Amino acid sequence: MGFGVYIKRQRVKRQLSLRSVAACAGVDPAYLSRVEREKVPPSENLVSQLAPILGCSVDDLSLMAGQLPSRLRSSLDKNTASPAYAVQELAAMYVAEPKTEYQTSSDSRRGGGQHRSPPMPHANLRSVATLPLFPDEKLLQGGQADDDTTEEADDNEDGLTTSKRKSPAGIATSDVVVTAHVSGNEDVFPKILDLHVPAGSIVADVTWGKGVFWKQVPEDRYVVHASDLQTGVDCRALPYADASHDCIVLDPPYMEGLFRRSKSHLAGAGSHAAFREHYSNGMETDQGPKYHAAVTDLYFRAGREAYRVLRSRGILIVKCQDEVSANQQRLTHVEIINEYEKLGFYTKDLFVVVRTNRPGMSRVIKQEHARKNHSYFIVFVKLAPGQSRRAAYKPQKRNNCSQTQ
After folding, report:
1. For residue 287, which of 297, 273, 279 has the smallest C-alpha distance?
2. Do the Cβ atoms of 54 and 10 come closer than 8 Å?
3. In tens digits, what is the pLDDT along the chain, a chain of 405 residues?
């Protein structure tokens, strides 16, 4: 424990504000704050002024501050020919002086009141002869090495808050998963799994399509249940038991043009045929909401079903894209987040995937909105009713299994 940390703890223990202690010591509060944070060393005058205020021994505080106590300095002045003898003489004086378990402050002695403070952690001067003239902080702590995590007491305006700030161990690196990627889905999806889904998890990809997402995922990393409309499984009515899966992957059609009442009006013709092939069963929508409302309705109902199937703290990975429908801006990802939060999901992460090629537009007369060239992966965590969001960050352990598709 350093000098600054110790005096701050003593001040807080006595419920003294930083400003009041600074005023009694005759120093600027900013200077005392820097001393407590060990940004600057204390002056000898400050040490001598703080001792009676905090109920401590001046000699003990001086040693903690790496300063020579006044009595040791006087002894050295008298024995200039033999400094070692002076130190030994002073040590003998301390050993001879009886001390109670608690050191009585000079203020209490003058005022008659009994104000006692706990013993200083380094008040034993039997070993004073072994200390260097300017002792290292670790020596004053009994030679103990620094821990990986340090804690300090934080101040509010009056300097009385005792909450602790931790400084965890770690390394500086730029090798981290980032939010935005100019890449394909098959490149980004494995990074999301590595970050949020433990190996061995049971994953249901309920909009499998061609399985593009899984191209770069090792086959033995997860147990994967693959399904979509073409296999006869609707993501809004899954054939799985309640709380049976660790992760759900949802990537339904996110173009309102794939929800048309006439098959001839469906989007995904010509150069966009891949959209219909990957994100639709190619059939017209004969009931329910129309246009963009049909898109969000599918996401909302699929989200409710995913909540049922997921275990507590299970992960839902949703792919979506904003769109302009009927000449109106539709921020689909915002609508999904708002609705899923109502269902009981916590929005833990979001990834932006930017197309590697430049999109085109047909039949342009006047452009009103920027052309969308990015989509989203949103990571949700299922929380039980009343469960704190902190639960989303508790580690989940899974057994290693083989993957089936």
Report:
1. 297
2. yes
3. 788 888 898 899 888 999 988 888 889 999 999 999 989 999 888 988 998 888 888 878 888 888 877 666 666 666 655 566 666 665 665 555 544 444 444 444 444 444 444 444 444 433 333 334 333 433 333 443 344 444 444 555 455 555 555 556 677 888 899 999 999 999 999 999 999 999 999 999 999 988 999 999 999 999 999 998 888 899 999 999 999 999 999 998 755 444 444 454 444 444 334 444 444 444 555 555 677 888 898 999 999 999 999 999 999 999 999 988 888 899 999 999 999 999 999 999 999 999 998 877 777 888 888 888 999 999 999 998 888 888 888 776 554 444 433
Closest CA to 263 of 285, 280, 293: 285
- Phi then psi for residue 391, to 5 deg, are -65, -25
Dig out the tokens for 333 from the structure: 């990802």
Strand pairing class (310-320; 323-325):
unpaired
- Please give the Cα distance from 137 to 3 (Å, whole number): 8
Q: What 3-state DSSP class applies to 153?
A: strand
Nearest residue to 185 (alpha-carbon basis) of 380, 354, 371, 373: 354
Assign residue 128 a region (left: φ > 0; alpha: ψ between -120 and 50; beta: otherwise): alpha
Q: In 103-184, where does DSSP find H-type helix?
A: 106-111, 137-140
Q: Which helix (H) or strand (E) holds 150?
A: strand 150-153
How far, in Å, are 199, 299, 311 from residue 241 at the CA level?
21, 20, 10
Q: How many CB atoms lie within 10 A of CB 302?
A: 22
